[in-house]
Design a protein that fits this description.
heterodimer, A: alpha+beta, 2,3-Dihydroxybiphenyl 1,2-Dioxygenase, domain 1, seven-stranded mixed sheet, 15 strands, 16% helix, B: alpha/beta, TIM Barrel, 10 helices
């Protein structure tokens, strides 16, 4: 990034406040797979609906409530695997270009854009593993999907969420002794803060939880179990956490749609949360009890 | 080489001590009983079949890569000079990552174009460390004794502490400490967890009178620990680091023009003698149990 004019930050310290990017939730989460129809079926069981197609690539947009999930089967260089992988998170920010610039100034790696005709240039940086983090500022009056996607005819563009499901967070698997590194990454680049160890949600309490500066969602960082040999260093985005004000109702509704849950020996764990069985070898969803829910939607 | 002939696991050679092609260096280091090697970017980019072939050769050697060196003159620059150095840093990080190496060595800037403002140095080192985070690489920042602003390890430590990045720590080179006569007691300042690498070297004269002589000595006349006149100080330094709780790697950072004219096996044997002396006589390391597995530490905090 070449800058002829010295940035203000190099001349005087300006307190950016707790939410320097104006972060305001997640616009979409993207999976990549060579089996987009199979993943589509999984998502539909979870209550998502396909609502739009990309204009030029094999990419589909699924939605329920305010959760957008993109299924990308367009192989651009990278080899797609059958097992779906979470390949991107798009953060809603005040000003995408400014957020991108700020991240690069602090040491993020830019993803070179490859824009085709009629497509938006969405600025992105590299995240964990092979994943990317996009910055999106068009999510109020206009949306990024208006340009890149064509709505699927006759399909409700705003399908209601099952049992008040909303995006709660993302679980990230990390290497040994990497918790502090990733805490610094999300803290310095986006303003995430660590929650105290006593504060946990759902039924999967391991690791460290980082709260977004908009307080709207969380990252959970999970290292390998102690005692695991020091070679298991694969890192990546592992699963999506969905919040619901009523976990048992959500379980009931999803079971009715064919979703299976991992059973637990604890008494009434379903009041706090639940975990779906792994589908397609890699896809699970975690349900987390969360009252905040619809108010922020 | 049997394990009963001395425990040299903590020590490694540096390719800069040896002449010849990379494969020959790796083979000589391995044959002398070392398990680790410190690599320079030149080892990769200067390989006749390209840097990816060099990476393959390193992996085939079975040697663990102690660290990758050296990023120079990174911090304190502005405008296009800064952008240029960021590109150099990224390129080095990519090579380091390809080697499965977890440590990049960066030494303090000697550039007259670099700022002396500690806040600028801190900002740039934070950025360098951030660039390294997604790749799982740690950055060891070392005070060159002829660095412009940072030229003794307590200053480097101060910058590292203020930058406060989990993957930014200190690279410690005994040569520079002896050259500047920095007191051994200053080591007490350091958090052993944040010493990411210790490089050891001896040299042949007692005193270095000028900065020019210091640079010439550092680049041409170093010898392995125990071969020069600072053996006693090196032993004291190594023991002190051990007492502080340092349990990381020791690499022999020996630039020597004569070693460049000797058979690789001969130089590697000199390095081995040095490692055996430090491991057995100074640190009195016990021989490890067969099939010892390294288990991960419990998560702190």
């Amino acid at each position: 990034m070449t800058q002829n004019q010295p940035s203000a930050s190099s001349r005087e310290a300006v307190d950016e406040g707790p939410n320097p990017l104006g972060l305001n939730g997640i616009e979409f989460i993207e999976y990549a797979t060579s089996k987009p129809q199979a993943l589509g079926q999984v998502l539909e069981h979870m209550g998502f609906r396909p609502i739009a197609r990309h204009r030029s690539r094999e990419v589909l947009l699924y939605r329920q409530g305010d959760i957008n999930v993109i299924v990308n089967a367009h192989s651009s260089g990278a080899v797609l695997t059958e097992q779906p992988v979470i390949t991107a998170i798009a953060l809603r920010v005040r000003d995408a270009a400014a957020a991108h610039r700020r991240a690069l100034e602090r040491g993020a790696w830019a993803v070179p854009a490859r824009v085709e005709v009629m497509e938006l240039n969405i600025p992105a940086i590299h995240g964990v593993g092979t994943s990317r983090i996009y910055f999106v500022d068009r999510y109020k009056e206009f949306s990024i999907y208006d340009v890149d996607f064509t709505p699927i005819p006759t399909v409700d563009q705003r399908p209601r969420a099952i049992a008040g499901l909303h995006l709660f967070g993302i679980v990230q698997y990390i290497g040994n002794d990497r918790t502090d590194d990733w805490t610094e990454f999300y803290g310095a680049l986006f303003g995430f803060l660590s929650l105290p160890d006593a504060q946990r949600f759902g039924i999967m309490p391991k690791g460290r939880i980082l709260q977004s500066p908009c307080r709207g969602f969380f990252f959970q960082l999970i290292e390998p179990e102690p005692g695991v040999l020091d070679i298991e260093d694969d890192e990546g985005l592992q699963r999506i956490g969905l919040g619901t004000p009523d976990v048992p109702v959500a379980i009931e509704a999803l079971r009715g749609r064919g979703v299976e849950f991992v059973s637990s020996r604890e008494t009434h764990p379903e009041l706090r949360g639940a975990l779906t069985r792994t589908m397609m070898g890699s896809v699970t969803f975690e349900l987390v009890h969360n009252e905040r829910a619809l108010a922020q939607g | 080489m049997s394990q009963f002939e001395g425990n040299v696991d903590d020590f490694g050679m540096d390719t800069i001590s040896l002449a010849g092609p990379l494969e020959a260096k790796l083979a000589a280091i391995r044959a002398a009983g070392f398990n680790q090697v410190m690599l320079a970017a030149r080892d990769l980019v200067g390989h006749a079949d390209g840097w990816r072939a060099a990476v393959a050769a390193v992996k085939a050697s079975g040697l663990r890569v102690t660290g990758f060196q050296v990023l120079r003159d990174f911090e304190g620059l502005s405008g296009h000079l800064h952008e240029y150095k960021v590109d150099i840093a990224k390129s080095m990080l990519e090579m380091c990552h390809a080697l499965d190496c977890r440590l990049l060595l960066a030494c303090s800037s000697t550039s007259v174009h670099a700022s002396e403002d500690p806040q600028v140095l801190i900002r740039d080192l934070r950025k360098l460390a951030m660039l390294a985070i997604p790749m799982g690489i740690k950055v060891a920042y070392e005070a060159l004794s002829w660095g412009r602003t940072i030229n003794e390890f307590p200053q480097a430590w101060d910058i590292v502490s203020q930058a406060d990045m989990p993957n930014l720590g200190l690279g410690f080179d005994s040569f520079h400490m002896f050259a500047t006569n920095t007191p051994l007691a200053d080591l007490e300042l350091l958090d052993p967890e944040k010493i990411f690498l210790v490089q050891l070297a001896d040299f042949m004269w007692n005193e270095i009178k000028s900065v020019e002589e210091r640079i010439a000595t550092a680049r041409h006349f170093r010898v392995f620990p125990g071969e020069g006149v600072h053996s006693r100080d090196l032993a004291a330094l190594t023991l002190k680091l051990h007492q502080l709780g340092y349990r990381g790697d020791y690499s022999f950072e020996v630039f020597n023009d004569d070693y460049q004219q000797m058979p690789l096996e001969t130089v590697a044997q000199r390095a081995r003698r040095s490692a055996v002396w430090l491991g057995e006589s100074v640190l009195r390391r016990s021989v490890p149990l067969p099939n010892r597995m390294r288990l991960k530490q419990p998560i702190r905090g």
